Structure formats: structure tokens, C-alpha cells
Amino acid sequence: MSTELRHRFTALSVNLNKVALVRNTRHLGIPSVVKAAAMCLEAGAQGITVHPRPDQRHIRTHDVFDLAEEMKAWPDREYNIEGNPTHNLMRLARQLHERGMPLHQLTFVPDGEGQFTSDHGWRFPDDLETLVPLIEEGKAMGARVSLFMDAEPAQMRAAKEAGADRVELYTEPYAAAWATPDQDIQTKRFVAAAQAALEAGLGVNAGHDLNRSNLGHFLSKVPGVSEVSIGHALMADALEMGYGATVKAYRACIEASGEVLV
């Protein structure tokens, strides 16, 4: 199902969880998750991300399929579904695959069922036995498999050996250190982790608390980032600027960073 889509600059995948969270506070069906996706794609986003948690507090099962249907109209863009593969993620992926619907990337995240937000990555060798068959299954469905990982260089080769195609670096520590004395220390951690991932033969994604202030610096320093997945900050900006202007502003941050992929 998946094809490796290449972009000159780091790809922007928009996480729509917060759109669904607002919608779920009422029973009116607004704001529309599908309309939000279409408007972001029209503005130049290269992908859409959702994280359907078991409690369905934001993205719900029908959203996963409604968005997959919308993505059919955007064959040059990617659909990324993230979550814990031991919860509901693989069931949804199997159903998409069986229906021949878009499924470009599966991002495995080690969340607990009631976890507030993602806050740590997989650990090796602890998680190896659990992940290997799930990675194999995801890849057999034609999806690229990315593992949500802390910025620890020593863990990257193990992620590759488990069968992953990419890692998504968990960037909250970088974001928390932004404009503090620890900024340089955290930046160097992520540079080292990305370099280790690239040397191991992994692609590099990044996400969590990236925003218009810190994104450009991150990409100008951290090598080879193929994709950033951004939700909370982007949607907060969209409340003031609108979807289209916000996506264009994030694309401008990315392009101004000078990160060019080959």
C-alpha cells in the first residue's frame, strides 16, 4: 500500500487529535476532522497524523476510516497512524489494509491506556520481544514502521535490528529546554541521536512540542529529519491564524531552516 514519498525539505505531517478533542465536547460534529485535513493538505501539508487512543477521547474509530477515505484524493501525501500496537492500533491497521485504504506509516508509541500524552520512547532490549512480530506485521501490510524513541544514540541500532524503518525522536526535552541554559545540551543530544539513527540505516522523524519558535533551529542542527509531526502547537496557532495560514507558516519555518533532503 505504501510508497516512499520524497520531499525536498522535511515533510510536515499535521496531527488532528486536538480538532477531534474539541468536536467531542458537543454532539454537533463540528469542527470536522476531515475538513481540517483537507484544508491543511490544500495549504501544503505533506501528511496527516492521528493517534486513536483506546478511550477515544479525541480521534475515534470512524475518524480513522473517514480520513483514509479523504486521503484517497491526495495520492502524493501520507497518512500516519500512531499509537501503542498492543492496544487498538493494529486492529485498525488491519481493517484499513483489508479494505485497500491508504496506510503509509505506522508509528508505534509505548503509551499506557489512560496516558495523558506520550512521554517516553521504547527501550531495548526490554521491548524487543514485543515489537519484532508487530513490526513485521506492519511492514507486511505495506506500511513504513517508525518507533517513538528517546534521544539516546545507543538505542538506535537496536531499533534497526528490531526491524524498524524509522524512529520518531521524542522532542519534548528539546522543547522544554528552549531558550534556557540547557538548550545547547539538548540540541546536541538530538544531533547525536539522529546521527546514530542515520548511521544505523534508519530514517528520522521527530515530534512532540515542536512549534514555530523552536522548529527551525531544530531542523537546522539535527541532521536528516524526514518528517515532523506537529499537533498541539499547530492547532493552537490555527485558532488564531486559520488552518491554511498556519500550515504555510510552519512550512516557511521548515524551508528557512535550510534542511534539504536528497
Summarize the structure.
The protein has 11 helices and 8 strands. By secondary structure, the chain is of the alpha/beta class.
Can you offer a commentary on this structure?
It contains 11 helices and 8 strands. It is an alpha/beta fold and 262 residues long. Helix 6 links the parallel strand 5 and strand 6 (166-170). Helix 2 packs parallel to helix 3 and helix 10 (232-241) packs across helix 11.
Terminus-to-terminus distance? 23 Å
What integer is the average pLDDT? 94
SSE topology string: EHHEHEHEHEHEHHEHEHH
Low-confidence stretches: none
What is the element layout, followed by pairings?
Blueprint: E1 11-15, H1 17-23, H2 33-42, E2 47-50, H3 61-71, E3 78-83, H4 89-98, E4 105-108, H5 128-140, E5 144-149, H6 156-161, E6 166-170, H7 172-177, H8 183-199, E7 203-207, H9 215-221, E8 225-230, H10 232-241, H11 243-256
Parallel strand pairs: 1-2, 1-8, 2-3, 3-4, 4-5, 5-6, 6-7, 7-8
Keywords, separated by commas or semicolons:
single chain; TIM Barrel; 262 residues; 11 helices; 16% strand; alpha/beta; 8-stranded parallel β-barrel; 8 strands
